[in-house]
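RECORD TYPE: protein structure
NAME: CBS domain-containing protein
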Amino acid sequence: MGIIKPSEVKAMRMRLGLSQSKLAKLAGVTQAYIAKIESGKADPRFSTLERISRVLEQAGTQGRQVLADRIMSAPIVFIRPGDKVETAIKAMKAHEISQLPVLDRDVQVGSISETSIVQRIASGENMAKLLRRNVGEVMDDPFPTVSRDADVDIVYHILEHAPAVLVVDHGKPVGIITKADVFKLAMKP
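PREDICTED:
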């Protein structure tokens, strides 16, 4: 791997699922010093960066990958195809989310989002009539799916092109990951 740059420490640490404290302990420095390096407030010596790089490389080769089930939200808030669009909007508002998977007997058949509803209204669809329609009539394509043991690096790439990823276990939806969930790793010390 070589010696990483101070600006790369945080991203590498998070990708490997290491806390600042754990990295500090393994590298022989304090957690506060790791925090300063990650925030750009400290310019570490070459020997310190070398130790940090070695620890991160070893952590990466020990299969310490972060899995999708670590950042997924569960249980899943969802809507059924026969539910009204108004019900979907109320569910999104109540749970402070912007999209929902559409499930029919534990099988994802589509999705619905604030964005797609707003686009329909902006393109001239009557809002009152839209609210009374069944979700199944207006839903978008289903969200991409991953297994619960998928590496979060895969999820990151999917989220570049999709608003959410459904996490499945033996074909059954067990969680959902949105762009907001990605920050769960960043918020852990």
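COMMENT: The chain has a mean pLDDT of 89.
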